[in-house]
Each structure stands twice: as structure tokens, then as C-alpha cells.
Write a structure and sequence with these properties.
single chain, alpha+beta, five-stranded antiparallel β-sheet, 11 helices, elongated
């Protein structure tokens, strides 16, 4: 049979190529290699498939008489032999068609091929195995291979490293190929090393095994993280960067979040100092969905300290003196490190005296000796004391401090009822507001005292057993009320300073310790005030007259309007009831209005009596005429009404109209009466004349 062109037939990668157009010797060699490939090539599913495929290719080439000549591509064959990879590269072959006569086909031509069966094909060569032998061979071949499933992590052996690629032996039908860059975590990868890889596909479109070293690392890292979260095991990671609120740590190729509060047991300010460090962690939180985890280094430290804490607490006794280091200071106290366990030193246990803040005495990292006051083994709480190492100040208080003695101290606390003065650290006395001044004027302790100022005082009472002391400032001076009758006689006039204002009056200080009150009604004869602040301000000087003195109760009544004569004696004649006056509205509310009358007198008008003729209510600063409807001299009260004035004007106008109408009616009546009389006389004369005429008529008849 004559063949002009050869058709290229490419088998799957890893399978040897055969040419049915080669010489008889080449064909025989190819047939043997095909049989060997069936038994050893890892990319073939079954040996029979290769034989069948080769036979089909040969038959196809035999029946192709006229096909275009083309180059046969180069292919790689990877065979496994004692972990050695032999790559056989078949060079490009281009042969011209050779005419073969019938003698050649029968095998009678060629001295070297006289005994070769030219009719034998790959199919016939494979037929030398029986079905049972073939099944046994296939079974033995499959048993020698490792079972591989996709999406699983497998162990592989490095077979070779060639040109930046790593060939991996998984004892499977084909080897795996990965770039060397995926093994950067291994310092020196060598042939024979065992590594873990992730099987992505058993066979891709090219028949190759698809692996991933990176995914295997990530899955193993996630398994370790889950194990740490479930069982509390320790994992190692490297801090790679700083982020908001903490750090990012690489734990076996998987990034995790390390919160700032979980870095150490003490507060951390400089996060940058930890970048690049390799640390141990415990996983405290995981998210299976996004494969994310939160780790803690603090948890490891706390677990280590827990054993030390248990040992220290077991050996604690009340009253025991320990050395501690101040690790944190707060508003309510300080936390001390006692060598693995923390104790709290409350601010009240730092000093016998009052302090505003623990930092007034303590500093961070300061070593101090403290006494164990109390501890709770269950809650792991230890209460410490610093002042307990010193004797109580009351126990060593100077014996010369007795009742009646004068002392000086610092104001350490101010309350509404008085101030506490510290005589020496831990010894305080109370100055009650009633002991500040001899005056009965109310004292505001927060305005009189200032924290930190020094004040002299007299000891009124002292109780060393109860550790209490009462002090007095006013008793440092003589009592001015003993001479009150002589210095402040009734009706005497004095000038004082306004010290305080209340809704009902003004407190005036005449001299140190002596003062009295002006009632709001005694400020003015003519004006009414809603509050004393409308008349006077705190700090103003004001003249007063002494109205009354109560020596027993230390009270004095003062007056300001009494400095002038009482004008109400005259007002009774000026503003009698029913009189009309011009008034200006000063202020008003929902109930009434205050109006300014002549001579500076203020009067009150109910709101309903301030309605004008047009029906509206008079406004502030509006001037109008009012009628006095009430004058009370005793109560000094004047009540007026604009409505009454309007009504009076209306009534007066109505009366005037009525009077004019009556006068008009009277005038009309008089005219009518006069007219009636005149008409009556005329009528009687006419009757006489008529009678005369009537008589003449009768005579004529």
C-alpha cells in the first residue's frame, strides 16, 4: 500500500508517540514500547485503552491515501523509575512517503526482517494477555497507586527540582508540578523532603495533577487555629503590621487580629515596638465563615501568672507586709504588682490625712511596702493599706491641744454645714457654719472657706477616744452682742453693707458680727417690690434705722423707709376714693397691673379693670386716666380702675344727653302749650261769628 503523507497523531501527555509509517524495524520497536507504556505510564487509565488507541491510529493512517504532510510536534514523556525522572524527547520527524509493494507487505523483502510479521498491530500484540491476566495486571497496578481525592491535603515527596519548578511524587499515576516560589517558607528545600500539598484537581484538561502548597499551608494554619480555640493550645505568629486598635499577626500564613488590650497585661502605648516580633498566642475568637480569628498574648501571660497568683494567695495572711510596685494609678486608688498578683490600695488607705488624688503621694513604678488588709481567695482580690504601717495620728496627738486652745490648720473639705480643718495629717476638726460669725446672718460655707487655705480656730470640744474635734472661728473674738443695746439703740440711724438678699428681705451687716434684716415692705413708702433686687444689690451701702433688737435671739429688725416721713397721711387727702388721676402702667401680669401715680405713689389695678373703651387691655408704658376705688391707709394700699373711669364718662355723657333731651322736651312742651292757648281763643271767636251768621240766615228765611 502506498502512503504519500503521514498524519500526525498526538496521544495524551505522558504516553509515547508511535508512527505507523516507519520502517518495519521501527514499527516493531514502537510496538514494544507501546506495550511497555501500557504497564508503566501513570497517565493512562488502563493498559488496554492505550493499545486500542494505538491500533485505531494505525488503521486510520493505513486508510489515508492523500493527506498533507506536516511536522510531528515534540512531546515530553515522564516515566517513574526508582524516583528518577527520565525525560525522553522525541525529535521532530518528517518522512517522505515510501512506496511499499506487496512483497514488502508480506514480509518477504528485507534480509533483516524475514521473520517479522508485518500484519501484527498493537491490538494483536496486546492480545497475548488473557482477560484474567489483564484484570490481574490492572488490579495490581491500581493497588500500587495512592488513592487521591480532590480538596484534601496529601503528603508528597520532592522528586526533583528543575529550573525553578518542584516535581512532587504522591505515588499517583502522574507527578505534581509546583513553582519553587511556593516553598519560600522552607529555607533549603531538597530532593527527598516531604511536604504537604492541597489537591485541587486529580486531572486538568491536559491530564495533569493540580496541586497547591499555599492552600495546604492555609488549611493547616486554620486547623491549628481551630484547635487553639477549642483546646487552648498555643500557636506562634509574627506581627507583620499595625492597624486600628491593635496589630496584625501572621500565624502560619493566615493573618489574625491581635487587639491592643490583648498584647500585655499592662496598657500598651507604642504598638510599633511589636511589629516584626514573633510571639505566642491563644485564639480567643474565630469566624468560620470568613476564616478570621482574634488572638491574645495577654491570655498566655495571665495563665502563667495564675499559678503564681494561687501560690501567693495561699500564703497570704492579714497584717502581712509585702513589697509591691505601683503599676497603675486611678482616681479611687492604685494597683500594685505583688510579684504575679495584683492588689488594690484604696485612696482612703494611702494616708491618714486627706488627699485629693493618689498621685499626690504615689508614682508609677514606685516600690512601696504595704500591709495586707483583706483578701478573697475566690474572687482573687487583695486589699492593701499603706497608712496602716504608721501609728494613728490621734494616738500621738499633742497633749497640749485641749478645749479652749487655739490651733491653726488647712481647710481640707467643705460641706453645706461647715468646713473641716486639718490640724495635722489624720487629725481634723469641724467648724460649723454657726461658729463662723456672731451674726445670725446665714453663712454660706462654700463662699466663706476655700480648700487649701490656712485658718486659725479655737478648740470648742475634743474627744480623743472617738477621734472628734469641733472648732470655732467666731470665738477668737469678743461677742459684740454684749454691747448691742448701747451701740445700736432703737430709732438710731446707721450705714451698713448689703450681704444677702432673700425674697422677703435684705440682710445688712452693720459691723463685724452685727447685722439685721430689712423686710421688703420697709424698703419704700410708695413702691411695691416683687423682690429686693429691684431696689438694692449685694455689696451696696444702705442707710437703715433700728426698729427692733432681740438680744436673746440675737436678731435685729431694720428699716429704710423710716428715714423719711410717712407720706400716707397726706395721700389720704390727695387720692380720695372716686378721684381721677393720670397714671402710667409700669408692669403687669395675668392678675393685675402696677401703675405710677402722681408723687411717686404706686397703685394696683386688677387686670379686668384696665380694659379700655375699645375693649383692649392697657399695655406697659401706656398713660391713661384711672379712678381711685380704694384707699387703705393702714395697709398702705391704693387700688385704681380705668374701666370705672370709662364707665363714669359714659354715664356722664349719657346723663348729659338725657338732660339735654329732657330740656328739649320741656321747651317743646311749653311751646305747644302756648300754641294751644292761642288756637283755643281763635276758635271761640269764630264760633260767635258763625252764630251771628246763622241768625241772619234765619231772618232772611
Amino acid at each position: 500500500m502506498m502512503m504519500d503523507d503521514e498524519k500526525d497523531t498526538t496521544l495524551p501527555e505522558g504516553t509515547p508517540e508511535t508512527s505507523t509509517e516507519a520502517s518495519a524495524e521501527t514499527e516493531a520497536t514502537t510496538q514494544a514500547e507501546t506495550t511497555e507504556a501500557v504497564a508503566t505510564a501513570k497517565t493512562e487509565e488502563k493498559p488496554a485503552a492505550a493499545a486500542t488507541e494505538a491500533t485505531a491510529a494505525a488503521d486510520t493512517n493505513d486508510t489515508s491515501d492523500e493527506e498533507e504532510e506536516e511536522e510531528k510536534p515534540t512531546s515530553k514523556i515522564i516515566r517513574k523509575d526508582a524516583s528518577k525522572v527520565n525525560v525522553v524527547i522525541t525529535e521532530e520527524v518528517k518522512e517522505e512517503g515510501v512506496e511499499i509493494d506487496e512483497a514488502d507487505q508480506s514480509g518477504t523483502t528485507g534480509e533483516g526482517h524475514a521473520d517479522f510479521n508485518w500484519n501484527m498491530t498493537s491490538r494483536s500484540a496486546a492480545s497475548r494477555y488473557t482477560d484474567q491476566e489483564r484484570a490481574d495486571l490492572e488490579k495490581a497496578f491500581d493497588a500500587s497507586m495512592t488513592n487521591i481525592a480532590e480538596a484534601e491535603i496529601m503528603s508528597a515527596k520532592v522528586s526533583s527540582i528543575i529550573d525553578g519548578d518542584v516535581i512532587l511524587d504522591l505515588n499517583y499515576k502522574s507527578d505534581g508540578l509546583l513553582p519553587l516560589s511556593e516553598f519560600r517558607d522552607q529555607a533549603a528545600l531538597q530532593v527527598g523532603d516531604t511536604v504537604e500539598v492541597y489537591v485541587e484537581q486529580q486531572e486538568d484538561e491536559k491530564g495533569q495533577l493540580v496541586l497547591s502548597r499555599r492552600k495546604a499551608k492555609l488549611l493547616r494554619a486554620w486547623d491549628r487555629i481551630r484547635d487553639s480555640y477549642a483546646n487552648g493550645t498555643v500557636i506562634t505568629g509574627k506581627v507583620v503590621s499595625k492597624t486600628k486598635g491593635g496589630l496584625i499577626a501572621d500565624c502560619g500564613g493566615l493573618e489574625t487580629f491581635l487587639p491592643g488590650s490583648q498584647i500585655d497585661i499592662k496598657p500598651i502605648i507604642d504598638y510599633d515596638a511589636y511589629v516584626g516580633k514573633t510571639m505566642e498566642f491563644k485564639v480567643v475568637k474565630i469566624n468560620e465563615t470568613i476564616k478570621n480569628a482574634v488572638v491574645s498574648h495577654k491570655a498566655l501571660i495571665e495563665s502563667d501568672l495564675a499559678e503564681q497568683r494561687e501560690a501567693i494567695i495561699a500564703s497570704l495572711e492579714r497584717g502581712q507586709v509585702l513589697e509591691g510596685v505601683v503599676k497603675n494609678i486611678t482616681d479611687f486608688g492604685a494597683f500594685l504588682d505583688l510579684g504575679g498578683v495584683d492588689g488594690l490600695l484604696y485612696i482612703t488607705d494611702i494616708s491618714w490625712g486627706r488627699i485629693n488624688h493618689p498621685s499626690d503621694i504615689l508614682e508609677l513604678n514606685q516600690k512601696v511596702n504595704v500591709a495586707v488588709l483583706d483578701f478573697d481567695e475566690n474572687k482573687k482580690r487583695i486589699s492593701l493599706g499603706l497608712k496602716q504601717l504608721l501609728p494613728h495620728p490621734w494616738e500621738v496627738l499633742d497633749e497640749t491641744i485641749t478645749e479652749g486652745s487655739t490651733v491653726e490648720g488647712k481647710v481640707v473639705n467643705i460641706e453645706d454645714y461647715g468646713a473641716f480643718i486639718e490640724i495635722q495629717p489624720g487629725v481634723e476638726g469641724l467648724v460649723h457654719v454657726s461658729e463662723v460669725s456672731w451674726s445670725n446672718q446665714p453663712i454660706n460655707a462654700r463662699e466663706y472657706f476655700t480648700v487649701g487655705e490656712m485658718k486659725p480656730a479655737k478648740v470648742v470640744t475634743i474627744d480623743r477616744e472617738d477621734r472628734k474635734m469641733s472648732l470655732s472661728i467666731k470665738q477668737l473674738q469678743d461677742d459684740p452682742w454684749t454691747m448691742i443695746g448701747e451701740n445700736f439703740a432703737l430709732d438710731s440711724v446707721h450705714t451698713g453693707k448689703v450681704k444677702n438678699l432673700t425674697p422677703y428681705g435684705v440682710f445688712v451687716e452693720l459691723e463685724d458680727g452685727i447685722g439685721g434684716m430689712i423686710h421688703i415692705s420697709d424698703l419704700s413708702w410708695t413702691k411695691r417690690f416683687s423682690h429686693p433686687s429691684e431696689f438694692v444689690k449685694v455689696g451696696d451701702d444702705i442707710q437703715v434705722s433700728v426698729l427692733e433688737v432681740d438680744e436673746n435671739n440675737r436678731k435685729m429688725s431694720l428699716g429704710h423707709k423710716q428715714l423719711e416721713e410717712n407720706p400716707w397721711d397726706t395721700f389720704e387727702n390727695v387720692f380720695p376714693e372716686g378721684s381721677y388721676h393720670e397714671a402710667t402702667v409700669l408692669r403687669k401680669d395675668d392678675r393685675g397691673a402696677i401703675v405710677q401715680m402722681p408723687y411717686g405713689l404706686e397703685a394696683y389695678a386688677p387686670i379686668k379693670l384696665m380694659r379700655k373703651e375699645d375693649g383692649t387691655i392697657a399695655e406697659v408704658d401706656e398713660t391713661l386716666t384711672v379712678k381711685v376705688i380704694e384707699f387703705d391707709r393702714d395697709s398702705k394700699r391704693l387700688t385704681v380702675s380705668h374701666s370705672r373711669y370709662v364707665n363714669d364718662i359714659r354715664k356722664e355723657a349719657k346723663d348729659q344727653v338725657y338732660k339735654e333731651e329732657k330740656q328739649e322736651r320741656d321747651d317743646t312742651r311749653k311751646v305747644m302749650k302756648k300754641t294751644s292757648s292761642s288756637i283755643e281763643r281763635s276758635t271761640l271767636g269764630d264760633l260767635s261769628a258763625f252764630e251771628q251768621l246763622s241768625g241772619n240766615d234765619d231772618d232772611e228765611k
